[in-house]
Amino acid sequence: MRTVVIGTRRSELAVTQTQWVMNQLQGQLPSSWEMKQERIVTKGDQILNVTLSKVGGKGLFVKEIEQALLDGRIDLAVHSMKDMPAEMPKGLTFGAITEREDARDCLISRTGARLEELPQGAIVGTSSLRRQAQILALRPDLDVKPVRGNLQTRMKKMMDEKQFDALVLAQAGINRLGWEEKVTQVLIEEKMLPAVGQGALAVQCREDDHEIIEILKSVHDEKTAAAIQAERVFLHAFEGGCHLPIAGHAVREGGEIRLRGLVADPSGSPLLQGEAKGTDPAEVGRTLTSELMDKGARELLNQVKEEIEG
Ligand SMILES: NCc1[nH]cc(CCC(=O)O)c1CC(=O)O
């Protein structure tokens, strides 16, 4: 008999994602075991009035949850992979990386206008420098403004308060909430390269919890994990988090991994892009890193870091 306590942030998306993992695990647990949800408020959920890049970005949505795991208050935690920083506290591990949902971003506009059709000067809400850079590269005439809060809050700010004409959001989150019909336009990778890890869930646990690790194998997806490894090797080479204008997306098909990456100035110019292929995920990540380093990505990012931190 064991009660498995699963930690989650309290947003509807976080709870939905956690519930999805719990459903997957349902048939895998010994019949005498039960599962329980524990909602945890993170720093990222509390600080709503500033741009994430200004509060120091990394790990804002995960620290409190990782502490709860280490303290034994919870046994499992379900995170959006893209919110996970490079370093994990000693004693914790990813027990599973789940099969990726749609990795792309999408546009939801108030009038139904697509990105190409938005009027000059239209206000696009996003706090992500990665999204900002790519929108401005395509439409330098648009006005990108930060927006915070959960998906419900963002929609209200656009639809009711008319603070924005359009929002850019992760299609995965929209799908999980069942909001597909609200989407104006799915942004293809050529227009908007997603964030590293976007669309996948990371299930974290204590590395000595062998019972849980065994059970989590049932929700692990090796194809997704390999793609994400390549993406994260690339991202972490720049000490990057989702607060920097870095994008990366990999797919594995027939044993081969293809990774695309992008590093940009928040203004959209310059915007450096590259692509690498291979069979070893870490190797593919490193190959793309050196390609972009050769194009000047390091210098560009140092400049960006100075601007947002200083
Ligand atoms: N930045 C917050 C965040 N973290 C994960 C998702 C969406 C789900 C996912 O990418 O798996 C979102 C919302 C968004 O970017 O629209």
Provide an overview of this structure:
Its cofactor is dipyrromethane. The structure is a single chain. With 310 residues, the chain is an alpha/beta fold. The protein folds into three domains: 3-100 and 200-220, D-Maltodextrin-Binding Protein, domain 2; 105-187, D-Maltodextrin-Binding Protein, domain 2 (3-Layer(aba) Sandwich); 230-309, 2-Layer Sandwich (Double Stranded RNA Binding Domain). The protein contains ten helices and 13 strands. It has helices at residues 12-26, 43-46, 63-71, 129-138, 151-159, 171-177, 210-216, 222-237, 281-294, 297-309; strands at residues 3-8, 34-39, 76-80, 92-97, 105-109, 123-125, 143-145, 166-170, 185-187, 201-206, 246-253, 256-264, 271-278. The strands form three sheets. It has a five-stranded mixed sheet with strand order 2-1-3-10-4, sandwiched between helices. The radius of gyration is 19 Å and the shape is globular. The mean pLDDT is 93. The ligand NCc1[nH]cc(CCC(=O)O)c1CC(=O)O binds next to strand 8 and helix 6.
Could you name the key traits of this structure?
globular, 3 domains, D-Maltodextrin-Binding Protein, domain 2, five-stranded mixed beta sheet, about 300 residues, Double Stranded RNA Binding Domain, 13 strands, 10 helices, alpha/beta, binds ligand PBG
